[in-house]
Protein 1
Amino acid sequence: MENVLIIADDADFTRSLIARCQMQRSVPAFTQVTSELWSPAVQAGYGLTILGPITSTRGDGILSSLEAQHAIGIFVTDDGSRAQEVRDTHPRILVFRQYDGWVDTLVLLVGEMLKRVEALSQLRRAEQSATAEHRHATLGRYMLEMRHSFNNALTSVLGNAELLLLEPGAVSAGVREQIDTIHSMALRMHEIMQRLASLEAEMNCTEKSSQNETPYSSQALAGRL
């Protein structure tokens, strides 16, 4: 459940709204600030902002800041002309008119807005995950495409290291130890590339098996129908 920020100078407004929300099955976490204590930094991290009665002149500035941050907000007022003014000047902000029984209706609206916020958050996470997976897939394809060139270079390193190791007196003991390390690490890289080739073969086999099973399953289902 997303967090909700209430900006209001009327304590009764905040108290009534929170008390009614707490009667719901799912209760969001509320934070309340007055218009004088509000700042754009305070705004960060809230899925939904409710702007209630404001006695200071900061109302328009708060609304403009909410729009600039692409925040999802509800402006609550009992003034018809003010409601229309906010609709005209801040189209991204949802305007809610107070009337008899307004608390119950606002609570329902808040619940629906929070569902929307959560759905958008899930969508963003899915898009980020898909982007990361695409990036990893691109990197994987590049590694597979470059495997042949890498193996050729690795073969050259191994061959030269082995030739130097076959001539004990050609280099000093310290240099021979370094060549031995190069040879060992080259063998290790060769093992890694072999494992990549094995994984590719396993994945191709699994993909072919899945493709072969799908038509069979469709035919079996059609037969039962």
Protein 2
Amino acid sequence: MTKTLIELARMTDDEARTYLESLIWPNGPVCPHCGSVETFRLNGESHRAGLLKCKACREQFTVTVGSIMEDSHIPLTKWVLGFHFLCSSKKGMSAKQLQRELGFGSYETAWFMSHRIREAMDSGPLEKALKGTVEMDETYVGGKPRPGDGKEHKRGRGTSKTPVVVAVERKGKSQAEPVKHVDTKTQKAIACANVDKAATLMTDELSVYPGVAKGFAGHETVNHGEG
């Protein structure tokens, strides 16, 4: 059922979770790990809110698992409002405006949310875009250095150019994002936001990638030095 902005703004976190479940699972919960509909809720005092378990594969999950909201610390109430703002705004909404409307403490959080929602609008209902074998690497983008400026211009890591992280699904879609730093935290956030947990990451031997690949189905590397 479509809700008004006032109704969405009054939601508690539990109500937001129920609302998202009705949108993502209109016919009842579906296990994101194996696709089974044989699931049940875990309502014990020690279980976190919204936790379900699959009878087929025995895995636990919530409505955010397998979606663009997975591994996000943003409250579900703000995700619901973010979806509403970006989907209902005829002229679009900038990340800066979204930051103001939702009261985010940082621009990066608003940018992360707006980018994920726009990606979901292009790729399907709240689903991550990249599956199967996903190749992930970084490149550096910028203008050619001016000759005679007296500066050292490196071509790879350590350059003053803007780093761009690229993830490519083999024979499928790709995702590229400019970043401030090439480190485990940044790469992990991009991978979790764009790549399905059942995917295998293919990377080079950069030290950040073992940490990035934790939680995914597999991780393979190539040695560029061997040509």
Protein 3
Amino acid sequence: MPTKPYYLAASIVCADMLHIADQVALLDKGKADYIHFDVMDGLFVPRFGLHPEMLQAIRSVTKIPIDVHMMVENPEPYIGAFAEAGADIIAVHAESTRHLHRTLTLIKKAGVKAGVALNPATPLDVLDFILDDIDLVVFMAINPGIVGHKLIPKAMEKIEDIRAKLKDHPHILLQVDGGVTPETAPKMLKAGANMLVCGSSTIFRPEAPVDQKLQELRTALNASL
């Protein structure tokens, strides 16, 4: 069960790739709740990244929990590699596998928590038979795989609908990925989200270090609540 009103997950794909160790140190300093680790295959989404070796390197320098978001076709063959590299949670897209329950079972057998990710237009009834098998729902408030896209207008309404769906499963975190800005973040929390993926529109910005931006965002969210 969540122990905080909300959690901030730093999207490491938005970090300075030439200075990842320094960026992770700043995430530790800024008390990031999670590191959000995107895995993309160029098929399920129109981008590539990130790989297990990078996850293993990040895990070696921090104890921040890492949630892996697998935006790949047929994720089952890769679950073991990311679990062994140090993932704490692995989320797979409902749209990416024909056998969602089996895939979630494989994640649990690998010794990590399981999550399911949903694209913006995916019907929520896909959750009906797996709520007892997951620890996280990742809702894409933008179309996945593109950094910096604007929030889809119906996203807030769908966050509310997912929260209603989870009312009898308070242990499941509801993460919103995409479209998180200082302006939208408070609205997302009020709609029912309790984990926000923070990237280039919030904490990874050139005008201030990431630890400072984390603290600023947290201060603003606390004031809004």
